[in-house]
Amino acid sequence: KKDGFEHFMMKEINEQPKGVHETLFRRLKEDKVYIDGIKITKKDLERINKIYIVACGTAYHAGLVAKRAIENFAKIPVYVDVASEFRYSDPFVDKNTLFIAVSQSGETLDTLAALREAKRKGARVLSVVNVVGSSVARESDDVFYTWAGPEIAVASTKAFTTQLIALYLIALHMGITNEKLTEKRYFEIIKELKVLPEKIEKILKNTKQIQELADNNFNNNSIFFMGRGIDVDISMEASLKLKEISYINSFAIPAGELKHGTIALVEKGTLVIAISTQKRLTEKMISNIKEVKARGAKVIVVTLESNKDVVKVADDVIYIPETLDILTPVLSIIPMQIFAYYVSIARGNDVDKPRNLAKSVTVE
Ligand code: M6R
């Protein structure tokens, strides 16, 4: 059942090209987004004055990326919240709000409760769910299914990348429908989305270097991640993945926040993973990396193959294939999943069933 892989997590990491392909191509028709059955018309978009995306854990991180895509393509303000906060915060939700729930299992109690609260306040509910017929799916007005297939490992991997694809498609559909996105850019993004499965394959063929980095660093008792822009979202997801299966103390920060506190932690040998995929922010990332290096940190940089600048200040570099800035999360998270996996193995942990965690959290 693990298809020759030692753990479900590695099997599922390797299933991402397929999951991404399925989630994408089932919703494309003649190179246009085809979300048959999901009601987001031009009239609906005229009425919707804000969007709430609510989820937990990894699905919440997909929501953070989605906010950037929707605001960029469709120019509608988006708020992202973790479900356990949303449900107790008396949020500004009314009939002009679109509520998007994101959940792999569709059974996460907090997400379900948040959805009920949003409905009670009159919002339209769209959900992005992996498990067909799950509670979140049944209680939503519209459902966009991800096609990841069953996810068994507690650490979510293929659910995340397929959620990203689903949310990009929703964002594209909104942008082209309300005419805030030009046709040229719309087709350019779709063209790039279509080649992402091959690019993920490419990363998966070269895991040896990542395994070596994991073997050299698994003994650290603290690892932090930093990035700017969309790389902050991926830093958070990378950190969650690492902590939940390696039990290493880890967190993520926007790199610009270093000087506002975190830099006090940096000493000789501190491991920092810097995600730097956004061209317009490279210079800023370089200065942040220099700041931590000057205090003795060791820095692993995740960047695009074409980036010749940031690599000069790195101790080690993990490259990902070129893609559009807005789409890099689908690629940059893959080496981080693999890194977390090998660190967990090196520490002798139960990768698929980390201590204290359950696959789906159906209690508060
Ligand atoms: O099934 P859901 O997507 O609603 O689950 C949400 C979180 O519990 C889940 O993503 C959790 O954070 C994972 N263990 C992360 O790898």
From TrEMBL:
The keyword Cytoplasm applies. Keywords: Aminotransferase, Cytoplasm, Glutamine amidotransferase, Repeat, Transferase. Its main location: cytoplasm. Residues 41-180, 213-354 form the SIS domain. GO terms for biological process: amino sugar biosynthetic process; carbohydrate metabolic process; fructose 6-phosphate metabolic process; protein N-linked glycosylation; UDP-N-acetylglucosamine metabolic process. It is found in: Cytoplasm. Its EC number is 2.6.1.16. One of its GO terms (cellular component) is cytosol. It catalyses: D-fructose 6-phosphate + L-glutamine = D-glucosamine 6-phosphate + L-glutamate. The keyword Cytoplasm applies. The active site is at K359 (for fru-6p isomerization activity). It comes from the Bacteria. GO terms for molecular function: carbohydrate derivative binding; glutamine-fructose-6-phosphate transaminase (isomerizing) activity. Homodimer. Catalyzes the first step in hexosamine metabolism, converting fructose-6P into glucosamine-6P using glutamine as a nitrogen source. This is Glutamine--fructose-6-phosphate aminotransferase [isomerizing]. The lineage of its organism: Bacteria, Thermotogati, Thermotogota, Thermotogae, Petrotogales. The gene is glmS.
